[in-house]
Amino acid sequence: MNLRANNWPKLASTDVPWDLILRYAPSGLTVIDLETTGLSPAFAEILEIAALKLNPDQTVEYFHQMVRPCGKIDPASTAIHGIKDADVSLADPIEVVLPRFFQFMGPTCLIAHNALFDGGHLVWQGMRHQLPLPPTEIYCSCRLARYCFPQLKHHSLAAMATYLQLQDWHHHQAMDDTVIALKVVCAALAAVTQDNFVPKHMAPHADLPLTHPQDQAVDYLAAAKAKSFLYNLNVFAPAQDDVLPEHLKELPRLCQEQALIKIKFAKGHHPHQWRPHVEFFLYPDGLACGLRVFLFYV
Question: Residue 234 and which of 2, 162, 216, 247 are 20 to 30 A apart at CA?
Answer without folding.
Answer: 247
